[in-house]
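tl;dr need the bound structure. longer version: we got a ligand (uracil) that a collaborator sent over and nobodys looked at where it sits. i said id run it. heres the input, straight from their email, havent touched it
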Amino acid sequence: MRFIHVACFDDWRSEARALLSDEVAPNQVHWSPEDNQLGLFDQIDGETSKEKGADASLNGGGKSPRVSVPSPFLELARHVACHRDPARWQVLYQTLWRIVHGERRLLEISTDEDVHRLQVMKKAVKRDVHKMKAFVRFRKIEANKAVETYIAWHRPDHLIMRLAAPFFSRRFKGMLWTILTPNESAHWDQKQLTYGPGLPASEVPRADVLEDLWKTYYASIFNPARIKIDMMKREMPVRHWPTLPEASLIEDLISEAPARVNQMIENHEGFSETAARYLPIQQDLKSLRHSVNHCQACHLCNDATQAVFGIGPENARLVLVGEQPGDREDKEGKPFVGPAGELLNTSLHDAGIERNDVYLTNVVKHFKFERRGTRRLHKKPDSREIYACRPWLESELTALQPKTVICLGATAAQALLGRDFRLSKQRGGIQMTQWSERTIATWHPAAILRMPDKNRRSEMIRQFVQDLRQGNAVLE
Ligand code: URA
């Protein structure tokens, strides 16, 4: 019998490789259970590598001969290695043994006992990673005044730090942060991830400015008309509540809910959802652009290919706001790249404006259309969809603080200048709004393209260029 101690996937992989090369059968190995992924004070740099292609090598360095296994097995093993079940190493080796001894397609047999057991473990680990992504809350600490430093403590069910940490390094790339769990910690220094030993919750500083901010945000998005307590407990397990600042609010919010619902009914407050609950905490353009694709504030996200967020320089002084992406924009994920965009390009050029200097966006971020055979015909967004999507535009404008906003068409004009705005009467006038010193409304290029009367169309183009030039001139 061989007694083997492994602490992480890489250990298991090299041990398994050596055992296979010595032809040691699974019943000849005793894998000793060990919960720590990392030996005390070990330090390992970088993310785990990803095998590509149909087959992947089991080799992670070392001298034993190469063993090739189907790449889905390695993917499965990486997840299973993070499960707390002490039997995981044994089941993994047993399955690996069978694969390399003639059962190459074993993983396709989902009713097989070993395969099923591994799949169940993988699923539990993936769910735990998902929960970690949702429930980690960073607190700001004052360790380094030059760069903001954050710390979070989380108690996952499994040993998932290595699987989850790369997500946080992508999501919070520009921050210095540390995530502590009882078993392992991860540290990001804006360049690389390092892992260290775990720490108890008592080490995490409690006072935090972010916490109040987050609570305000949570209370503002909490909709008493939609409380589902069981669902909240499922999605936000009570076990995680001690580390979630918003959890202390939940009881109050729940007890106040009936009164708030009545008040909402009296105030005719919309029960319809808005995008506010999908906004990221840090509302810079990059974070907003990343978050918009998760938005489900209205049904338009169901049929559109993707959300189309604004594009252009972060310091743009001129912002153009259209209605919603069209067919081409929906496919390409960028605003104004279709026929309306072409007319906009020539008009910007005629007005002496560089398109690359301008920030382009829309009131509604998802394409609304009606299918006619293979064609997708543009449909005007209704007031509920415009209302639901509004937080994205407001956040964009708040981040940009442009000097001038030009509304292209009635939808944008009414969204920013009020429901009573009439394009035919008020086009070209300059108004001050909370978003910019100057807001101007002009024709939408698509409306110009649809104009059947040739003379009228030329006149609209002339006015369009003139309005663009005027919007730009006030910047000089
Ligand atoms: N029409 C718009 O309003 N926006 C686009 O991005 C494209 C067409």
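gonna send this back to them w/ a short note. Confidence is low (pLDDT under 50) at residues 35-54, 265-271.
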